[in-house]
C-alpha cells in the first residue's frame, strides 16, 4: 500500500526544514504524496511543488488557518490556487496578526519569569512566520523545559498561561476562502477543539453547513478510540477524511514524517477521494 502525509510544516511557518528538504525527506521515507500546510502562508508552496517534480512525489498546495473558536480550531485547505486574490489578501492580514500574537506570547512568558523575547524566537526561524513552536524551542534551548512538547503541555497550548487567542477568521470565512481558491476545507486535529461527544458532533455539523468538506481522520496524537470515532463521524455526515502527522522537523522532533510517533499509516486512497 502507498502512503501520504497531508499535514506538514516547513521553515516558512513553524517547521525547521526548507520545502525542498521536506519533499526530499518524504521521497526518502517512501511516501507517494504530501501536502505543505504552513500556518497562514503560501510562501513555501511553489518551492515544494517544484521539489515534487524534481524528486518524483506529488505535492498538494495547502494551508492551515487558525480560526476563532472556544477551543483551538484549525482549518486545513487542500488543492488551493495560491494566486487567488481573496485568499492572498487574508493571508497577508493573518501574517500581520501573527506579529501581535508573537509579542503577546513573549510578554506572557516574561510575566511567568522566563527570559524569552520575540527576537529569540526569530533566531529559530529567520525566514518564515514565527509561532508557538519557535517559543517552545527557545524554552527547551534555554533549559526552561526538557522538550518542545513539555513547553506546549505546560505553557503554550490552549488553556495554558502563555497561550493567546487572537484570530483573524471565523471558521465559516476560512472555509469560504478555501473554496473560493478552488480548494477543499478540512477540520484539523479534532481533539484540540476541546469538544467531545454530542458537542463535537454538533460542531462538525455546523461546519458542514458552512461547507466543510471533511475532517482529519488520521492524526499523530489521536488516542484510544479517537481515530475510529472521528472516521465514523465523517461517514455519518458524508464528509471526506484526510490525515497527517503535523510534522515540524527538528522543532517537534518527537513527530516523524509519515508515521507520527511511529504507528501512523495514511493510505493514498484518501487523496484520490479528496480530488474527486
Strand and helix layout:
Blueprint: E1 4-8, H1 19-29, E2 33-36, H2 45-55, E3 58-67, E4 73-78, H3 85-111, H4 118-124, H5 132-141, H6 148-156, H7 171-180, E5 184-187, H8 197-210, E6 214-219, H9 226-236, E7 240-244, H10 269-275
Parallel strand pairs: 1-2, 2-3, 5-6, 6-7
Antiparallel strand pairs: 3-4, 4-5
Q: Could you explain the architecture of this structure?
A:
By secondary structure, this protein is α/β, with parallel strands linked by helices. It has ten helices and seven strands. The protein folds into two domains: 4-80 and 169-275, TIM Barrel, CATH 3.20.20.140; 92-156, Orthogonal Bundle (DNA polymerase, domain 1), CATH 1.10.150. 42% of the residues lie in helices and 14% in strands. It has a seven-stranded mixed sheet with strand order 1-2-3-4-5-6-7. α1 (19-29) packs parallel to α2 and α5 (132-141) crosses α6. The longest helix is centred in the middle third of the chain and has 27 residues, at 85-111. It is globular, with a radius of gyration of 17 Å. The model has no long low-confidence stretch (mean pLDDT 95).
Amino acid at each position: 500500500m502507498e502512503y501520504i502525509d497531508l499535514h506538514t510544516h516547513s521553515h516558512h511557518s513553524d517547521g525547521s526544514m526548507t520545502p525542498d528538504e521536506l519533499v526530499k525527506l518524504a521521497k526518502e521515507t517512501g511516501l507517494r504524496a504530501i501536502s505543505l500546510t504552513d500556518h497562514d502562508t503560501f510562501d513555501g508552496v511553489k518551492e515544494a511543488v517544484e521539489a515534487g517534480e524534481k524528486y518524483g512525489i506529488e505535492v498538494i498546495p495547502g494551508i492551515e488557518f487558525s480560526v476563532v473558536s472556544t477551543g483551538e480550531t484549525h482549518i486545513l485547505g487542500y488543492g488551493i490556487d495560491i494566486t487567488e486574490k481573496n485568499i492572498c489578501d487574508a493571508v497577508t492580514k493573518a501574517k500581520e496578526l501573527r506579529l501581535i500574537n508573537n509579542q503577546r506570547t513573549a510578554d506572557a512568558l516574561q510575566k511567568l519569569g522566563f527570559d524569552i523575547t520575540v527576537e529569540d524566537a526569530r533566531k529559530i526561524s529567520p525566514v518564515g512566520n514565527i509561532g508557538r513552536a519557535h517559543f517552545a524551542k527557545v524554552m527547551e534551548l534555554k533549559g526552561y523545559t526538557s522538550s518542545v512538547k513539555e513547553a506546549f503541555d505546560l505553557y503554550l497550548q490552549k488553556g495554558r498561561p502563555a497561550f493567546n487567542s487572537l484570530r483573524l477568521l471565523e471558521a465559516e470565512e476560512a472555509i469560504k476562502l478555501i473554496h473560493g481558491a478552488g480548494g477543499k476545507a478540512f477540520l484539523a486535529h479534532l481533539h484540540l477543539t476541546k469538544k467531545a461527544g454530542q458537542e463535537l458532533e454538533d460542531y462538525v455539523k455546523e461546519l458542514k453547513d458552512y461547507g466543510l468538506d471533511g475532517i482529519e481522520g488520521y492524526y499523530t496524537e489521536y488516542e484510544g478510540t479517537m481515530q475510529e470515532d472521528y472516521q465514523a463521524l465523517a461517514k455519518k455526515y458524508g464528509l471526506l477524511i484526510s490525515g497527517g502527522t503535523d510534522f515540524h522537523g527538528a522543532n517537534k522532533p518527537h513527530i516523524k514524517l509519515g508515521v507520527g510517533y511511529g504507528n501512523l499509516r495514511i493510505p493514498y486512497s484518501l487523496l484520490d477521494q479528496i480530488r474527486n
